[in-house]
UniProtKB/TrEMBL annotation:
Pfam families: DUF2518 (PF10726). The keyword Transmembrane helix applies. The chain crosses the membrane at residues 12-31, 38-61. This is Ycf51 family protein. Keywords: Membrane, Transmembrane, Transmembrane helix.
Length: 173
């Protein structure tokens, strides 16, 4: 996986290429070359590319890995205070807790906005059961609430709904 140091090095090379394109563009206007306007576009593109690489060099791209967590899929996210993940129906309460903690860490972002009444984010975990062919029922197995203002939230609360696990199909041996 690429690190922030790698992106910083790519930013430097892209910055040099941007300066070369800018010099070529100025030269093209002075000498009235036919491709001078194309060079303006190429220089603009290089500037945007360099800015993006610089932004990636500032923000870490690491994901938290919590032992015991299962793979989840984000199915709903309002970009603010609510998200829903889906997990396999074979999940146990212990793996659900680890998965909720991992989701809370991975979905944290400084860009999430809380309302005046809610300064926390709620992530709910669900699975789908199929009691009969053609029928799917979502079952919410738990949720986690975490702070929107603090990345290392020590007051994160995880709620597991044990009565919902009784609705899940029993694994066949």
């Amino acid at each position: 996986m690429l690190t922030t140091a790698d992106f910083l090095q790519y930013t430097q090379w892209s910055g040099i290429a941007t300066l070369v394109f800018a010099a070529l563009t100025v030269l093209a206007f002075i000498l009235k070359w036919g491709l001078r306007f194309r060079l303006v576009g190429a220089t603009g593109f290089m500037l945007v590319l360099t800015s993006g690489l610089f932004a990636l060099s500032l923000v870490p791209l690491s994901r938290t890995v919590i032992p015991g967590a299962v793979r989840f899929t984000l199915v709903y996210d309002n970009g603010s205070t609510q998200a829903v993940i889906t997990i396999p129906p074979q999940t146990t309460p212990s793996t659900l807790e680890a998965t909720l903690r991992q989701a809370a860490s991975n979905l944290y972002s400084y860009g999430r906005l809380g309302s005046r009444s809610e300064n926390y984010m709620t992530i709910r975990a669900r699975t789908l059961i199929h009691p009969e062919p053609g029928v799917s029922i979502p079952v919410y197995l738990g949720q986690v609430k975490r702070s929107l203002g603090n990345r290392e939230d020590s007051e994160m609360t995880v709620e597991i709904y044990p009565e919902k696990f009784a609705q899940l199909p029993k694994p066949t041996v």
